[in-house]
Amino acid sequence: MATLQRPASWLELGADLSMAREHAGMSVGSVAERTKIGRHQIEAIERGDLDMLAAPLYAVSFARKFAAAVGKTDGGVRERVMRGYSDLRR
């Protein structure tokens, strides 16, 4: 499988959520437990690897749940995820 260039919007979203998680004093495991999202998916979001989440619907849903768990308001999560998918098609 070819390595995809990660869209900037995904990298920024992942960094924002990782920083919010750390600021909230939460581990990846605690976010996974709270959201019922697998640890590997949480780590993928933090890396900006949203294409590993199977489909845009899952990426949006998981990223929103992650954001809520770390106390971050939506912050355009859906738009940032979808912008990344749009950038991949270019």
Automatic annotation (TrEMBL):
Signal peptide: none annotated. This is Helix-turn-helix domain-containing protein. It holds the Pfam family HTH_25. It comes from the Bacteria. SUPFAM superfamilies: lambda repressor-like DNA-binding domains (SSF47413). It comes from Sphingomonas donggukensis. InterPro entries: Bact_Cytoskel_RodZ (IPR050400), Lambda_DNA-bd_dom_sf (IPR010982). Transmembrane segments: none annotated.
